[in-house]
Amino acid sequence: MSINMKLLVYANEIIENDTNITWEIQKEEAHKIYLSGARTIQFIMVSLFAGIVIHFGSKKYHYPFTVGCFLFGVAVGLLDIHSQFVRDFTHVTRMNPSDMMLTFLPILVFESSFGMDAHMFYRALTQCIILALPGLLFCTALTGIYAKFALKSYNWSWFTAFLFGSIVSATDPVAVVALLKEMRMPHSFTILIEGESLLNDGVAIVLYEILSHHVLSGSNLSWKDSAVQLIKTCVGAPVFGYISAKIAEIILVKIYISPVSEMTTILIQAYITYFVAERFLGVSAVLAVVLFGVTLNANRMSISPESEGLIHTDWRLLSVYANTLIFVIVGVLISVHLSMHYDSKDALLVFATYFVLTVLRCSTELSRQTVEVSRLRRRVDVMVLCSVASRIFATVSVDINGRPCTGYGLTWKESIVLAWGGLRGAVGVALALIFVSNPKIEKSEDTSKVLVQVSGIIILTLIINANTVKFVMKLIRFKDVTLVHRLSMGNAIACVTEVREKSIRICKRDRKYQKADWIWLLLNTKLNDPYKGGSRKKEETLKRYFPFDEATSDGQSLRPKSLRLWTEHSRKLLRLAQSGHHRFAVIPLG
């Protein structure tokens, strides 16, 4: 055999060996990808099954569902630290934080905004903006000053301290909305908390991006440029969300009466809105999705009546799945990262930070001033409720019909619940992870402690605030039955009792019922007023407010306070009736 032939055979063997090696490598990589995907699915299934168990447990033992999911995630994270087998199954929790927000936030934010009453949201929008924009900036400034001087051992710069303030100042809409769904609060107050939380979170992410840019680039902060960027981002996002909703409406009209297609269109458009706003336009993706959902809800005539109920049900189901998974993932991430960066002295600092934030949030100053307006000759009550760390609120109310000009107003009981219900959750962890994992951070700063502090605040707010908010509401008698509800219940029971007595009188004349046990029937059909209680003097006092003639036999006229309550109650019932006719496309005859 010639030398050329030997070289050719040798070259073929080398190529064949390289091909076999390459094939084996590709096969091994494909097998790893398959295992990763299979374990991800298994992790999701186990988490959802755990969510079922936690849900039944929350009904029996009365703890928040999200807290149960979070604690389950913490337990899985502790197993992840000590077991390679569990670590293989929790690989999905180590996804990019930005991808985690892109995966879950469009579902959770849209479901919340799409389920809100558009009329009530627009009326409370001014209050929500005041709480979200000036309140967040004020809170970020105070928290940053505290972090700079009280957490000196971390060696944070001013930018890092203010960035930490922007992360912990914003309430997490995922956690807050999940808590609200488990508690039956007044609808207007629920709209205020939910809307403020969504807008607050969107503004906080924008503020975080501005501060993180200066921290990572090391450039000096131009307050003028930053303010312009903040305003441009916060204004551009709602505009884009509104345009996106109009595009979705045009598509939905074309595919009328097709529930599957309509649901798919809305789902795709929600993700496109979030993705385009964040990656291409550079505006707040959360604010864009909020306006997308509210606008689509306000103009839901583009959705067929046959599909609307199914769409709401599907979105609630997706929201439950996403809510369960995100809190389990947050629990795993916090337990894993705390095991790597936690120090014994951090516990005291975390409790100190939580205490300071809670005291600043809950130390509200309520003042009422009476201002005379010479031109209008009216009495104007200016109520300023300032919650130093996380709430700054101003309500101007004119005493015409007792209705506030700005939103629905806020009582002192609602302000306490508003301050105590400011939970932190998945968004804070994601922002902290994005910041800590960036390689451009200066090594002179102990920036890993940002994640430690944020994780500690999240743990304490979920365990303490979420579990005690019902106790706080009971302590301040937040859910006391109002005068309107007491009188409405009494009037309804009186009407039902009168109908019962008439029916019994008619039945007694019928020969078929001559042997009936009327005493037993009267005893078992008697209705008791659940709101009745207290002294007879108090009941007589309540009757004086009753607007119907049969209850005001003494001839006393209706008082202004009672008239205002009944007027607001009647308007609310009228709006609900109109909303029901609009939703189901029912036009009353006559």
UniProtKB/TrEMBL annotation:
Mode of membrane association: Multi-pass membrane protein
Annotated localization: Cell membrane
GO MF assignments: potassium:proton antiporter activity; sodium:proton antiporter activity
Gene3D superfamilies, sorted: 6.10.140.1330
Keyword Transferase: no
Residue stretches spanning the membrane: 33-54, 61-81, 129-150, 156-180, 280-299, 320-342, 418-438, 450-469
Domain Cation/H+ exchanger transmembrane: from-to ranges: 45-474
GO terms of biological process kind: regulation of intracellular pH; sodium ion import across plasma membrane
Keyword set includes Transcription regulation: no
Keywords: Cell membrane, Ion transport, Membrane, Sodium, Sodium transport, Transmembrane, Transmembrane helix, Transport
The name this protein goes by in its record: Cation/H+ exchanger transmembrane domain-containing protein
